[in-house]
Specification:
Length: 76
């Protein structure tokens, strides 16, 4: 089945969140600039428990740091 969903990029984000998560679900966002900020904002509007971890946008995410954040935040 093909479904046409005309929307902006943020509309696609909203569709992804609305169809995969439920209010109260915990999500982890690494704050690396505008797009991460928008993801966190939209997730919050959908009632998600958003956990934001700052990260220098000039560096890629280091796997050990991601592992540590996941361990710290628990079930995300």
């Amino acid at each position: 089945t093909v479904v046409v969903h005309p929307a902006s990029g943020s509309g696609a984000w909203e569709a992804a969140i609305a169809n995969t998560l439920s209010p109260g679900d915990r999500v982890l966002v690494f704050k690396q600039g505008f797009f991460a900020d928008k993801w966190a904002e939209i997730a919050g509007r959908f009632g998600l428990d958003v956990r934001v971890h700052p990260w220098d946008m000039r560096e890629g995410l280091a796997p050990p740091a991601v592992t540590a954040a996941l361990e710290e935040e628990g079930d995300v």
